[in-house]
Amino acid sequence: MIRVLLAEDQGMVRGALATLLNLEDDIEVVGEAANGEEALTVARDSRPDVALLDIEMPGKDGITTAAELRAALPDCRVVILTTFGRPGYLRRAMEAGASAFLVKDSPAQELATAIRRVLAGERVIDPALAAAALSAGPNPLSPRERDVLAASADGSTIGDVATRLRLSEGTVRNYLSAAIRKTAARNRIEAVQTAQRQGWL
Amino acid sequence: MIRVLLAEDQGMVRGALATLLNLEDDIEVVGEAANGEEALTVARDSRPDVALLDIEMPGKDGITTAAELRAALPDCRVVILTTFGRPGYLRRAMEAGASAFLVKDSPAQELATAIRRVLAGERVIDPALAAAALSAGPNPLSPRERDVLAASADGSTIGDVATRLRLSEGTVRNYLSAAIRKTAARNRIEAVQTAQRQGWL
DNA sequence: GACCGGGGATGACAAATGTCATCGCGAACA
DNA sequence: TGTTCGCGATGACATTTGTCATCCCCGGTC
Questions:
Q1: Which nucleotide does the CA of B141 lie closest to, via C1'?
Q2: N or C: which end of chain B has fewer CB within 10 A?
Q3: pTM of the prediction?
């Protein structure tokens, strides 16, 4: 039996996926979690063979969780499951040690297939997505530019961001200007959007 | 047997939910759809007792679909399923003739329960969400303010919006200013965000 | 007929944002 | 040892955005 841990914040989706997986006669869901923290503690107890991690979770996200899980349980393979097939997500997931990267758009039966293939030592990645991730290149934003852009994402004013990040307003403007240039945007709203679309935040 | 139509764009979630529902011995999924248009055509063929509609779908969204479905098949009850429990969504869903409003956060077994209760003539709504929707009041934005705010949501410049909506730049600024005031925001980014959070767009 | 309210517009003004040049500091690096 | 790069800052400047008063037109409605 393949022992699976399932981390997904939406209860209805989590329950449905668990049911789906438990119907497979070689798969058994041995733990469920609604966020990254929970996934780590549950994993330490249940010792799964594969952890299925959603990226978009409150608190600790799936990619961060993947990295910590790989460190804590090196034998446990990680399958990343996400709503958005963003190039930066894929890149970061691979760097965090994931063995597979699935988007929720794909048909349901691919989930069990991917789990089996991962356990056989394979890596499972949508070829089109892999190509997109490679052609998009790495994140061009410096860490600080990322911080500033992320802090601006909620509509905060430059003054707000400066206070929150303990920077001068001029500095914030400079970083934003650089981010806008690097994302080929016309203002920070567009910059935030392209950065998010690429998975750079 | 309760005949259910399932409309949800994410293949993996749709498949899992279908499996979950088919396990119930009084429920049968008689049709699946990945968007609103498809849901309508499938419904005309499969004549479901209940249609389960996701709001966030590409093309025709779940609420619009609900209204058209109620017109085409008056005997078919509508259950709205959504990721976001936004007050405006609930309000619009009810106005579109929905019998139930579920958020995907809630546990999986609530889905089957809700379907049975809806078929028994009940309405199923999370009380906390209902209270939020009532206390939030109706959408304060005029139709045109809504248009302009929605057109600004993607980071377009005022000039862009003016061109797209065939308005003068000054007019766009005026509408945006009004929308900012009504949403108690400090700039249009915040205005867009609160409007989206309330389900006003 | 008078009186709204919404849509659309103009002009003026203040405030916020974006751009650029320039500086200092420190760490990495060839 | 000099060079490069990221971080942080300042000042000046042009542009964009947000606010406000004021106007016109039109379709209700009292």
A1: C6
A2: N
A3: 0.90
